[in-house]
Amino acid sequence: MKFFIDTANLEQIKEGAALGILDGVTTNPSLMAKEGIKGAEAIKQHYIDICNIVDGDISAEVLSTTFEEMIVEGKELASLHKNIVVKVPCTADGIKAIKWFADNGIRTNCTLIFTVGQALLAAKAGASYVSPFVGRLDDISSDGIGLVSQIVDVFYTYGYETEVLAASIRSTQHIIDCLEVGAHVATCPLQPILGLLKHPLTDSGMATFIADTAKMQ
Ligand code: G3P
């Protein structure tokens, strides 16, 4: 399973990249706004900065909502760097735009996926990735990981090449759950990724080894 980091914070992206385990980055308008990125030039520069930190797929989301505007914006985003994947919402205009991008060699990530039917439309339109939102479904007492599992099964059965990118990951356990149901990618904030490192027996074992190392010197 590939690991993307889900943030627009350059320091966190650098920290994740330093571990050597990052395969890409996802952003969205909320994450960009949180970093205080404002204006067309600052947005473009921020994506270039991210591309210069991580050598992998970098999702850059369109801010427009009509097909025509998405095409103009998506082409511009894709021209920033070879690793940019244009992130497009799962709306009627978005699906039409994904089809246009696929026909024109631009890779896409269809976002805001909450049903297998939405994932199917995105895959048929030629999306490179679909992003089911795990945490937001869990928030409303629905089954986020269940949806990831369902989409993985359907894509496998029908041979779709679209990758399932589990998004809205909120915990380390979510990452393990994504592994178990066969998600191609999990995009996670830094903390759940660092959580994978943690075990009290690792900590106590290291303390013992360090103490015993001192005895040998
Ligand atoms: O990639 C989408 C993801 O960032 C949404 O996460 O926590 O806002 O539901 P969250």
Structure commentary:
There is one protein chain. The protein has 217 residues and is of the alpha/beta class. Helix 4 links the parallel strand 3 and strand 4. Helix 4 crosses helix 5. The mean pLDDT is 98. The termini are far apart. 53% of the residues lie in helices and 17% in strands. It has an eight-stranded parallel barrel with strand order 1-2-3-4-5-6-7-8, surrounded by six helices. It is globular. It contains eleven helices and eight strands. SN-glycerol-3-phosphate binds next to helix 7.
What are the SSEs and their pairings?
Elements: E1 2-6, H1 10-18, E2 24-26, H2 29-34, H3 40-53, E3 57-61, H4 67-78, E4 84-89, H5 92-103, E5 108-113, H6 116-125, E6 129-132, H7 134-139, H8 144-158, E7 163-166, H9 172-181, E8 185-188, H10 190-195, H11 200-215
Parallel strand pairs: 1-2, 1-8, 2-3, 3-4, 4-5, 5-6, 6-7, 7-8
Helix pairs in contact: 4-5, 5-6, 6-8, 8-9
Bound molecules: SN-glycerol-3-phosphate.
> How many alpha or pi helices?
11
Read across the widest sheet, the strand sequence of neighbours is 1-2-3-4-5-6-7-8
Low-pLDDT regions: none
Q: Main β-sheet: number of strands, strand sense, barrel status?
A: 8 strands, parallel, barrel
The distinct bound ligands, ions and cofactors come out as: SN-glycerol-3-phosphate
The chain-level mean pLDDT equals: 98
Give the radius of gyration.
Answer: 19 Å
Shape: globular
Order of helices and strands: EHEHHEHEHEHEHHEHEHH
Structural class: alpha/beta
